[in-house]
């Protein structure tokens, strides 16, 4: 059975594992994200030398990843990855085929390959955490878009404040951090003193918490509704930190019920699922991306 070495490059650590052609993960480990590109290459090289029987290297990376050209555009927490041709550099250093893809796209591909969307062709994947990210899947492949911004749902405008004369994006209004900041502002406390998970957990027992948690779910439902009518996917998958909440789908569907009760001309109800894969999603998706390209 063919095996691949997958890396999930994050702002604080780089996870890696062997993933076989059935999507099974083994030999997982991690190292601290290096502070220079050369050190990153060296760490990856050191790991690769331990696994000689692999077909190739698959990477999940932050930023606007040009999978064909090998360059990462945009910005991320790791500034040195933007600009160099990482794909070509690693191919030469490792003498192996190398493929890489954006991290949110990898998470979506994991679901398409072996997760909740394994029977779907067209779907959207929403990553809800400190911001909003996502991916658009068309015919089981990532749709990157003209400027490599396909799936950047966080930029969508969700609200205009007439008093402030200001636009608010989905990331502004619909991230878990936004909830905590608004609660802190109303309670007149430093938002760093609040635990976002506790705000969600205690929402039914605290009026201020509930006000902004409800707003979070309303914004999420609005985004999902808009994506359904913009792209008409057969499934919309929710990932990110919020996906671990057992009441997530109930809360979103409550808000969708309100939307559909008011917009009676709309009859296409989104098919919403919670992602199946957690920490291994990016490793599995990066591997599937490699397999698709070979």
TrEMBL record:
One family name in Pfam for this protein: ROK
InterPro entries per UniProt: ATPase_NBD (IPR043129), ROK (IPR000600)
Family to which the UniProt record says this protein belongs: Belongs to the ROK (NagC/XylR) family.
Protein name: ROK family protein
Organism of origin: Faecalibacillus intestinalis
